[in-house]
Each structure stands twice: as structure tokens, then as C-alpha cells.
Amino acid sequence: MTSTGKRASLDKLPEEVASMFDDVAPRYDVVNDILSLGQTRRWRKVVFDAVGAKPGQRVLDLAAGTGTSAEPYADAGIEVVACDFSLGMLRVGKRRRPDIDFVAGDATNLPFADNAFDAATISFGLRNVTDPHAALREMLRVTKPGGKLVIAEFSSPVNPLWRTMYLEYLMRALPEVARRASSNPDAYIYLAESIRAWPDQDHLAAWLADAGWESVAYRNLSGGIVAVHRATKPGQAPVHSGPVGKIRRARRAAG
Ligand SMILES: C[S@@+](CC[C@H](N)C(=O)[O-])C[C@H]1O[C@@H](n2cnc3c(N)ncnc32)[C@H](O)[C@@H]1O
Predict the structure, then answer these.
(1) Known binding residues for S-adenosyl-L-methionine
(2) Where is this region: Disordered (predicted)?
(3) What is the distance in A from the centroid of ligand 1 to the CA of 86?
(4) Could you give the domains of the chain?
(5) Ligand 1 atom 23: the closest Cα is on which residue?
(6) What residue owns the CA closest to ligand 1's atom 25?
């Protein structure tokens, strides 16, 4: 995995990304569970705890896809808005969870007012946004002062041996599993490549600070296969705040 943050040959137009997710929508959650060897449930619990939202608060789940990442909030009686620009993903989500508020919107130009949410979160979606810096700024705009941002994204395994094994799995096994289980295996090849090209933990932490977020920290999951970043919007804190857990302060990345 590189830490360059380069999107290079992976650059896709926003319409191409949306249409790719439209294609994989019907089997997205099943394939996801297979590819992550069932780890997604544990990762999602960590994200939910880091957001630390309480009933009465309003959470934005951006790039929510079929709404799987929004479900824990709805299940806990927390108002959650699941926003995504793939109508195919939203349709599958709405059919599955009619109780969740699904909203079509582009992460780089959100259809919400300033300070509209107590917290914003994005799971396995920031990497797919064509301009992730703009998305980080938009999430800052729509979050209340003192409100939280929590990002779950594939990252860079810390242990060199684990990293080699993971990259091997990513580039060989994952496309093969996807070929058998998904209607659009090319989409999963793109996803595997986009994971390799995504910036590492410290680099992403620096992007958050550059966008205006403060108190940036992250926690590695599954040895760094996934990192959960968290930050706060400058300003007065809301009444509720979540557990700090094992999250540690991020070092600012060089370059
Ligand atoms: C891998 S899925 C993640 C879905 C869900 N958050 C989850 O955890 O299962 C990534 C999602 O990002 C969405 N996405 C990519 N770029 C976007 C953008 N610019 N605006 C809104 N959604 C976007 C895609 O449509 C897709 O549904």
C-alpha cells in the first residue's frame, strides 16, 4: 500500500463511480461480508461507538450506500440521514430499511444546511469520492461546532509481514472471490486497486486537519487493514460526547 494519496489511473468521473455502485448494489452487502471475512460487523461497531451519538441527536452517514453503515443508529433510536449519490444503492437500501431517511446527494456538494448535524460519519466511502478534500470540507460545513467526524476506511497494515499477506490477498484472492460472487467483478478490481492507492493513516489525518477539523486521532483495526479516524469541528462542544476508547492522537504526516 502506498502513502502517496495519488489517485492516478484510478481517477473516475463521479458519474462512473455512481454507475459502478448502481451495478453492484443488489449483491453489495453479501459480497462485502465475504470479502472482509465477516469483519465488517466488528468494524461498524467501533465506528458507532466512536460517533457516540445519543437519541435526540442527528447523524449524517455519508456515502451510505445500501444503508448498512446507517443501520446501527436507526436501531438505537438515533435520527440518521443516509446520503449517497448512487440511486441504485439507495433503492436497495430503502427497500431493505424503509424506516431510514435516504437522501440522494453528492459528498462534494451536500444538500444540507450549515451546522445541520451533531455528527458526520463515512464508512468505506471517502476513498471512492472523486475529490475527498471537498467532501471533508462539506462534512465540516454541515456539522455543528463541537460536533464529531468519524471515518472508517481501508488503510495501511502496520506489520510488514501482515501487510505483504494482505496485499497478496487484496490483489489476487479478492478479485477472484468477487468474480464468483458479484455481478460486476471489474468494480471489485477497481476497489482493490483504490485501496492500494489510498493514503496511509497519518496522511489521511493530515488531510482532516487541512480541511479544518481539529483533535484529529485514529485507531487501527485488524492490524491497520482499516483505520477509524475521528475529529471534532472547532467550536463549542455539544452536550453528549462518545468514548475515547483506544483511539490515539495522530502524528501529522510529512509531505
Ligand atoms: C463501498 S460503498 C460504502 C457504503 C456504506 N457506507 C457501507 O459502509 O457499506 C461506497 C459508497 O460511496 C458512494 N459514493 C462515492 N462517491 C460519492 C459521492 N461523491 N457522493 C456520494 N456518495 C458517493 C458510492 O455510491 C457507494 O455507495
Answers:
(1) 66, 84, 106-107, 123
(2) 234-255
(3) 7
(4) 14-156+198-249 (3.40.50.150)
(5) 63
(6) 86
Task: Say what the pTM is.
Answer: 0.86
146: Cβ–Cβ under 8 A, 6 or more apart, which residues?
Answer: 232, 233, 235, 236, 237, 238
Residues 37-84 have pLDDT tens digits of 778 889 999 999 999 999 999 999 999 999 999 999 999 999 999 999
* Known binding-site residue numbers: 66, 84, 106-107, 123
Residue-wise pLDDT for 174-230, tens only, equals: 777 777 777 677 777 777 788 888 999 999 999 999 999 999 999 999 999 999 999
Per-residue b or e along 154-184, where b marks 16 or more CB atoms closer than 10 Å to that residue's CB: bbbbeeeeebeebbeebeeebbebbeebbeb
Q: What atom in ligand 1 is closest to the CA of residue 129?
A: 16
How far is C-alpha 145 from the chain's CA centre? 21
Residues with CB under 6 A from ligand 1: 14, 17-18, 21, 63-65, 68-69, 84-86, 89, 106-108, 123-125, 128-129
